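Researcher: Please translate sequence to structure tokens.
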Amino acid sequence: MTARAGTGRTNQKQRTRTAIVAAARDLIGTGTEVTMPAIARAALVSEATAYRYFPDLPSLISEALAGVWPPPAEALAPVAHSTDPVERVAFACEFLLRGILARQSSVRAMIAATITRPETATARPGIRFGLIDHALRPLEDTLGATDPAAFAQLKRDLAVVVSAEALFTLTDLCRLDPDEAVTSAVRTATTLTRAAGRSIG
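Model: Translation complete:
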């Protein structure tokens, strides 16, 4: 009986965790503000219970979004044939920023939480880095081999531009509409990549 009771409690905990993650995923899909209280209400649990399963909002959002973003190779499949890093970076930048726009309530919540608690930043998915690495594959044997410092700098430069923070700066502060913001970021990302490519040799 004790074993059965233990199994029952374990199953109940798993059901509760699954319900919380599902509620978070559903809330993200609505585009409304994503908060721990709102997720707890949707999951029919108390906020305290939600925090027992997830120590902070970023870790919950990260689990809710797990599997939503495709791996870099799959995301960049339409430009897999291209050896032009500029074309590949342009595609990667637009792919990421369009995806952020589709999930911006959760991304904004993630950024807000990690700004106030930097130690939770590791919970952020970091999708941009995989996309940038994959997009720059054609430069690995050229710029990466001849000037690794410049190659590393290009990756850092692109991490600033190919990002939710850059997108929200363009929409919120520069007052661009979403399409204009994406176009602007893509232009900057490709300019950086083109300039780095010209430095080879």
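Researcher: Any highlights?
Model: The mean pLDDT is 90.
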